[in-house]
Amino acid sequence: MPLRRRVGGRTAVARQGAVVAELLPPAGTHWLQEKAREVRQGFMDPKQKAAFEEFLARQRH
Fold first, then answer.
1. Higher pLDDT, 22 or 51
2. Strand partners, 22
3. Stretch 5-21: mean pLDDT, rounded?
4. Helix/strand/coil (H, E, C) string of the chain?
5. Backbone φ and ψ of 60, nearest 5°
6. Global confidence as pTM
7. How confident is the model at residue 1 (pLDDT cuts 50, 70, 90)?
8. Burial class (CB in 10 A: 0-12, 13-18, 19+), 52
C-alpha cells in the first residue's frame, strides 16, 4: 500500500520506502518545466539554441 506525505504544496507518494511520484502545485510544475528547458538549451550550440527559442515563442501564441 502506498504511503502519501504532504509537505507544503507538495505531496510525495512512496512505495516500499522509495518515492515513486511527487505531485506539484501548478507553480512548481511551471518552475520545473523552465529548469528543464534551460538544461536542454545548455547542450545546444548558439544557432540551434536561437532556433529553439524562436520555435517556443511561436508555440506560445
1. 51
2. 12
3. 81
4. CCEEEEECCEEEEEECCEEEEEECCHHHHHHHHHHHHHHHHHCCCHHHHHHHHHHHHHHCC
5. -75, -15
6. 0.45
7. low
8. middle
Among 33, 40, 61, 16, CA closest to 51: 40
State how far the Cα of 39 lies from the Cα of 10, in Å rounded to an integer: 23
Neighbours of 31 (CB within 10 A): 12
Q: Select from 29, 26, 34 the least CA-distant residue to 60.
A: 34
* AA identity, residue 39: V
Q: Please tell me the distance from the alpha carbon of residue 5 to that of residue 43, in angstroms, as a whole number.
A: 35
Does residue 60 register a pLDDT over 80? no
CB-neighbour burial class of residue 28 (10 A; exposed 0-12, middle 13-18, buried 19+): middle
